[in-house]
Amino acid sequence: MKKINNVLSILFIAVLSFTSCQEDDLTFGNIVTPSNIEVSVTYIDNDSESPAPGLGSGEIKLSATANNATAYHFVVQGQTKLQKSGSASHTFTMLGTNTYAVTVVAFGTGGASSSKTIEVDVLALYEPPADLLTMLTSNSSRTWKIASEVNKHFGLGPIGGAEFEYYGAAPGDKANSGMYDDRYTFNIDGTFTHNVGADGFVFGRDPLINELGGSGGTVNGADIEQYTFGSYTAQWVLTAPSGVETLSLTGIGFIGYYVGGNHSYQIFSRSADEMILRTTDGKGEFDWWFRLIPE
Question: Which residues are the signal sequence here (predicted)?
Answer without folding.
Answer: 1-23
